[in-house]
Batch of 2 targets.
Target 1
Amino acid sequence: MEERILIVGGAGYIGSHTNKYLNDNNYKTVILDDLSYGHKDAVKWGDFVKGDMADDVILDKIFTEYKIIAVFHFSAFIAVGESVEKPGMYYNNNVSKTISLLNAMVRNNVDNFVFSSTCAIMGNPKYLPIDESHPRNPINPYGWSKFMVEQILKDFKKAHNLNSVVLRYFNASGADPSGTIGEKHNPETHLIPLVLDAAIGRRDSISIFGTDYDTDDGTCVRDYIHVNDLAQAHLLSLEWMLKNKECNDFNLGNGTGFSVKQLIEVVKDVTGNDVEVVESGRREGDAGTLIGASDKAHSILGWKPKFDSLETIIETAWKWHQKMDFLEK
Ligand code: UFG
């Protein structure tokens, strides 16, 4: 039987790009997604199974019908504000259902897991850039849910010898340069697609959440990392895990921060369109500056981000965004 990677949440933003990246690199995939947030039209590679990631019957069937060598898990709820309002929903999806998935792996002797974690487990930074040793201090249920799974994975290694790599993304952004897949959340809360919406005229303006942060221009600073570079890190993590049969964790960012105002200027340059800006108050739970240190991923995985300028990242997002707009009409 041909070896496959199971991509849970492969119809979502980062999952669909990783699916393409794996297939472009001659890996075969199976996608499991309930399409509650993902998009069927983003699954253009591999076999697709519609279903819940905690459904034992579906999971056992996949693990029996395919030779799954690793599971990549992208199927989390990600809206920070919503996690504060509905913690039960977040802990159920992000923690309980992940435990069911891990139990199914153990039951079916599948040993390798790559987990999408987040810099949000560190909370407000004590120092910058944020490396893997930074103290953990999540400040919302979303961050806690990811932190809990990180701990659970350590326990599964001890008890069941389940290998895992934890990848902590900074701000995932951009789209595949082909323009065939990209970022499409509903509702959209992320800065880049919202600014592009303003540039294309789908919304009147972009609100800047807070202009009184302790940063050069008062707006929040983030480390934007291209989604295909995250996909590359997943493939390298898989290869590292297959070779070393161990656990590891990596922070994934470009190591450069851009403020909200700087990002809006880049969008104006790339699109050639004006963007109307409304300055409003802070969004609850936002840290002022988040910048990642990814030396560990560079040295151990050999990870080399290809999209290291914000212009290029925005160009790829813009290419997708114009087409996405067209598709939805
Ligand atoms: N922002 C605005 N206006 C907007 C939207 C966002 O000013 O309309 C600002 C935010 O305040 C923030 C920056 O733009 O300073 C980026 O915001 P995003 O919502 O795009 O992303 P976050 O930095 O909030 O990302 C966080 C975590 C990720 C997590 C993600 C979940 O850092 O790990 O939320 O959606 F995955």
Note: The first strand starts at residue 3 and ends at 8.
Target 2
Amino acid sequence: MKLDIIAGARPNFMKIAPIISELKKVSDKIQYRLIHTGQHYDKKMSGSFFEQLGIPEPDVNLEVGSGTQAEQTARIMERYESLLLNRHSEQSDNAAWESSELETTFNGISDWVLVVGDVTSTMACSIAAKKLGVGVIHVEGGIRSNDITMPEEINRMVTDSITDIFYTTSEVANENLRKLGHDESKIRYVGNTMIDTLLKNMPRLQKPAAWNNLSLKDKKYFVMTLHRPANVDEEVQLKALIDEIVKGADGMPIVFPVHPRTAKMLKGIGIEADNLHMIEPLGYLEFNYLVKNSFAVITDSGGITEETTVMKVPCMTLRDNTERPETITIGTNELVGTNPDNIAPFMKKLHAGDWKVGETPYLWDGETSERIIEDLLGL
Ligand code: UD1
């Protein structure tokens, strides 16, 4: 079997790492090439994850870079299609790829493309592949926020509509796919590859420099991340949210690794508070060290709500919906919403020690990638 693995943006890297490490064990049966679209390109957003998680250098980097949703989608589709049609060299000077053994093996066309998550790269590569008759495998298929204003929701809907094999993380996802009319035989509930990475790396988590610089103490600080357009693209909303959080933290330090999108906006606002510590985006091992030892996490990310659920850390989600409801019904997550006025009661509950403990969802056990590879071998 010839398989393309696609990774483009930060939340993809922890999902593909354990799949690649399992694929290496069956290299006689499945030949793969790793394709980085280049959607995220900074060392802090991409390179450091490859290093820390032991992901091999991509075989091809499509180097699409930043742009609007449509620009990124178009560039990824065009470049990935060229690769599949073996015309990649016309657009790129990727000499390493052109002379590689893999290039001869693949001769452009793959049997399957494996995409993960819901970023623009996921959708764009699925479309380009499917139109050339390449089968689409979607890891983390079937989840829905039912919020069509999120670019990720559109990416999920489009990708799933042309997916041949779904590897899912939850019973809710399975049910969503059934309701959409997908045949049961295409749906395979395997668990969560992001949690494979987390459990494997738990003993390797590293204290970030901020720990000493800010004199952080175990369970005595918040971790915050914000990057969703609904929260960060408007000054008034972003400022109101941060003001409420600072107030609600009651003097406890808030460590805030700032996403590039949010950083651009914050420059103009100039928020300052003694307990608010804005730092650069962290590596995987440092970020999860901070989360594991924190009092609570405040975020608008989806993936982080899965990690806090497994680490049993209280998590407040500043969104009006989630595509990962099991982090609320089973895990430690609560949906606070995007209205800044909602924050105070949740903060009160946290400080009073009234937060739920939570359980780990079924099959989030660190062995999901093994299950995926076993299944792939049967395709
Ligand atoms: C993307 C994903 C989102 C994911 C997030 C994690 C989509 C639609 N969204 O959003 O699901 O949660 O990644 O980070 O795919 N930038 C840099 N350096 C980089 C990458 C981006 O400075 O390495 C800047 C870009 O120039 C842009 C901003 O960050 O201004 C946003 O990047 P973009 O890739 O458009 O989407 P994200 O908001 O990161």
Note: The pocket of uridine-diphosphate-N-acetylglucosamine is lined by residues 9-11, 39-42, 45-46, 66, 118-120, 151-152, 227, 259-261 (CB under 6 Å).
